[in-house]
Amino acid sequence: DTEVTQTPKHLVMGMTNKKSLKCEQHMGHRAMYWYKQKAKKPPELMFVYSYEKLSINESVPSRFSPECPNSSLLNLHLHALQPEDSALYLCASSLGQTSGNTIYFGEGSWLTVV
Amino acid sequence: LAKTTQPISMDSYEGQEVNITCSHNNIATNDYITWYQQFPSQGPRFIIQGYKTKVTNEVASLFIPADRKSSTLSLPRVSLSDTAVYYCFPRGQNFVFGPGTRLSVLP
């Protein structure tokens, strides 16, 4: 089983709203990731968590706030977003952060900011 | 920072073998190379991963020369359902995808 589950699949939010994207895996993976993907572009790394601690933050604006409540869950809290933040947000996980550990992706959450 | 390049697009016909080559000149010693397939509105799907020489699974083969500065994904006998974007992903510390190759399989 290599399943990463993301909810919701679609989200529309206003620029003053606060919402969250959720991600769950039960593969015993200890590294979890958030990527952002714009149309016709490759996914771009946002955050990496390793053993529930933030390991990498790719200079993401503070209006995106990640949280890893436990080893199976990863959240992305959204506040005061801009229309240009509309994109597909992908969660992923791997056994560990080091190379050689395959990264598995969820189906993504489509975010539209109006 | 390592720069990864791959062809922007490729066309093929059903039943043909397709080879997509990715260049990753600055790959680090410990980096593995992973390839993903992505359909519209879906997340990237793992295809194959390797470190050197040749790796084969039930859907593809991956060829990595001794200098590891490139890798080639080989899809045998493609079908219409293989139309997708294929990403090369030299798995290093920066977790950066290649630009993707849009493969169109024609009948």
Total strands of chain A: 11
Number of helices of chain B: 0
Structural class of chain B: mainly beta
In the sheet with the most strands of chain B, the strands line up as 1-3-8-7-6
Shape of chain B: globular
CATH architecture of chain A: Sandwich
CATH topology of chain A: Immunoglobulin-like
Helix content of chain A: under 10%
Report the biggest beta sheet of chain A as strand number plus sense, adding barrel if it closes.
7 strands, mixed
Question: What do these coordinates show?
Answer:
The complex is a heterodimer of chains A (114) and B (107). By secondary structure, chain A is mostly beta strands. Chain A is built from no helices and eleven strands. Chain A has strands at 4-7, 10-13, 18-25, 31-37, 44-50, 53-57, 64-70, 73-79, 87-94, 104-105, 109-113. In chain A, strands 2, 4, 5, 6, 9, 10 and 11 form a seven-stranded mixed β-sheet that branches. Chain A has a four-stranded antiparallel β-sheet with strand order 1-3-8-7, with no helix packed on it. In chain A, strand 7 (64-70) and strand 8 form a beta hairpin. The mean pLDDT of chain A is 95. With 107 residues, chain B is mainly beta. A five-stranded antiparallel β-sheet of chain B has the order 1-3-8-7-6, with no helix packed on it. A five-stranded mixed β-sheet of chain B has the order 2-10-9-4-5, with no helix packed on it. In chain B, strand 7 (61-64) and strand 8 (70-75) form a beta hairpin. The model of chain B has no long low-confidence stretch (mean pLDDT 94). Classes of the chains: A mainly beta (114), B mainly beta (107). Chain A binds chain B through residues 2, 4, 6, 33, 42-45, 48, 56, 88, 90, 92, 98-100, 102-108, 110, and chain B through 30-32, 34, 36, 41-46, 49, 51, 87, 89, 91-92, 94-100.
